[in-house]
Each structure stands twice: as C-alpha cells, then as structure tokens.
Inverse folding.
C-alpha cells in the first residue's frame, strides 16, 4: 500500500515536470525553480541547472541577467 502511494506520487511529479517542459517558457521554468527548489541552485553548477531546465547555459545566463535587470531597473546602465 505504501509503495503504491509513493509510486503514484512519483508519477504525478513526473507528469507535472513533462507538462511544464512542454508548456512553460524557459523564463517561467527558471522562476518556478526559484520558487519551488531554490536550494538546487547552491548544490549544482549552472551547466546542470541549464540542463534541468532544458536550455543552454548561455540562455540561462541571459535569463538570469534579464530577471536581475527586471528586479532592479537602475542596474541597467547605458
């Protein structure tokens, strides 16, 4: 009984992950990662985080830079 519940929960998590990869943009996936699993950012390199989000490391860098600029409009200089 316990294993069946564990398996069911794992299946739901896997389906949610697949749905997220198919429907959410890269920026939305990164923001969800920040909200739900921010501890992963300290545990893994940017390369592995980019792989988890299904983006290139360069794209992840652009996403992070864009979000940092959006949070602090004065951070962008001309």
């Amino acid at each position: 009984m316990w294993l069946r519940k564990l398996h069911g929960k794992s299946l739901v998590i896997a389906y949610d992950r697949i749905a997220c990869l198919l429907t959410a943009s890269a920026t939305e996936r990164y923001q969800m990662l920040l909200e739900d699993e921010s501890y992963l950012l300290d545990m893994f390199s940017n390369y592995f985080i980019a792989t988890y989000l299904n983006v290139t490391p360069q794209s992840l860098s652009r996403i992070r830079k864009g979000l940092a600029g959006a949070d602090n409009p004065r951070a962008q200089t001309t």
Q: What stands out?
A: Residues 2-23 form the longest helix (22 residues).
